[in-house]
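Homework help thread (please don't just give me the answer)

Our assignment gives two proteins as sequence + structure token strings and asks us to describe the second one. The first is just a warm-up. Here they are:
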Amino acid sequence: MNLELKTRIDKAREILAAQESLLVAFSGGVDSSLLLVLAREVLGNKVAAGTVESLLLPSFEKQHAVIFTKKRGIPHHIIGAHEMNAPDFTENSKNRCYICKGLHMRALADLAQKHGLARVAHGANTDDYSDYRPGLKAARELAILAPLAEAGLDKNAVREASKALGLETWDKPSMACLASRIPYGSLITPEKLAAVEKAEDFLRNQGFIQFRVRHHGDTARIEICENDFANLLSNALRHAIVRHLEGLGFSYVSLDLAGYKTGNLNKGIV
């Protein structure tokens, strides 16, 4: 770990050490895993993890979160926020992330209070502030801590620090909630979320690492890294993908020639 990164990690530790006790919003991803480990390191048994069980979180991510905390003996609470019962969320406006994040963070704040934990923190990094992320506004309004971002850590720094600390999550692909696969204005339903999750599970099982399956009604639009194009387009695999996704209810299966881009459905939003 180079000196600059060490300084920033030490800054994150200082921020965490200043807390009386903490509940870490834990998805099992790269950022929240590093945050949880750092918090545990400096606060000991005054730290717990909280995961919101939701149709928006792929089931394998929840499983990874459970394994990660169990391995380290960290108390882990799983709760629901019931965002699918909120019409202002399922209507899928451009404010969707703000509404969802607010529901999730309020549920975690209630959980923290129930267990006598003083604050809630989430794993936002500085890169998150470069895209359209209205959920960050909801987190700020609810006084949710963001120690990694406050310490100046971007995604690459989070990965580098995680690797240096021996965390198995250091090279996990970036993961966003499944609602991010559904274009704004298109109703979010359990059926659409399930179709996206199953489609992405299939691609993951074929060896693809970083990708998205966007849900455009009867069309599935696959985004993968450009260096994976040749593999996906090989005849046997291409036909297998088409068959599987048609079986999930899609009439058409397309490949986005621009390749995978995080936040791709945010184009045109200021």
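The one we have to describe:
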Amino acid sequence: MARQEWTIFWLVGENSGDLHASLVMRCLNTALPGLRHVGIGGSRMQAEGLQTLFPFARFNVMGFSDVLKDALFFLKVERQLKKFFAQEQPDLAILVDYPGLNLRVANIADNQRIPVLYYICPQFWAWKHNRVFKLRASVRQVACILPFEQEMLDIHNVSATYVGHPIAEEVSFELDRGQFAAFYGLDPAKQWLGFLPGSRNGEVRRMLPVMLEAASGFDPGKYELLFSKALTISHPLFMEILAAAGLPHARIIDGYRYEMMKYCEFLISTSGTATLEAAYIGTPLLIGYKTSPLSYLIGRRVVRIQRIGLPNIVLDQDLLPELIQDEFNAANIQSRAQSILTDPARMNSIRQELRKLRSILGGKQTSLEMLKLVRGLLKIDA
């Protein structure tokens, strides 16, 4: 390993990707001193040494209508990245999830003869199947985090490796239930219900009011009502929605998210990575999703699968209830949650099924598997 310095370009567009990528960066920095990291990412990646090219917050959007509003910004990003690749010629581009932009950036990098490692495969099996052909055309290696993806990519002659799911090395606990209760002033004698409205402002605007309305139907004498506030969410926005709901006994949980997932009896979560984290921890939950009417109409035409919840998809069964768009309302949330909470046998059955996720997703250490791929693409001997 004569050479001592390499430049890696990263592109991450959302909070969960920032966490996943930061652990990989930490592993790379330990094993390969002298790496230079530059690109787009959040605070966790910046703490590992990422030099940022654009404000991370501008990328944290979702849904067709939200992306359309920022179309000019994304065109500007693509133009500047084209210049960056031509001038800087990084040794490797690692693109993390975020396929709407990252597949276009993969093409730009590939045209400049920069090898591309795509970490967290686009969900072509769910919608936009043509993305598999873009992967084959522009990406040197795909790192899959769901076990069935590698086989599906092999069919299309896409070079792919299953690296395990990053939550297996991310989920950890610092506080026991008593310590968590003391930290947030919770009554340990009550049952705890947790609400996870999402990590984007747009998600919170749509999901949190419905969750608060649903929470008002649960007896505060019996339940503690916990609302997770991600660090990426605007504090004024969150507090404004909370104040409008008039739910004085709502508890804001702005840290120790994994503890909240573990110690709650039941969770109501926005569809996304959080649902898989909670299921991996083993807590029964309800999965919801609500977007703009335009995004929903478009989505209905292009989505190819019946399930939206990652735990249900990985387990290949309708284990956890899902409520989508208009079905995600206070009455439905209350009835579905109560039907599970008041049925100990069903609660136990769900927990038993969720335990399977640990064996499915926890067999590999993702950061070490990614290190192997990076070594190979940079032609560094182990």
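TA reply:
I won't write it for you, but here's a hint about the kind of observation we're looking for: The domain at 6-164+364-378 is CATH 3.40.50.2000 (Rossmann fold).
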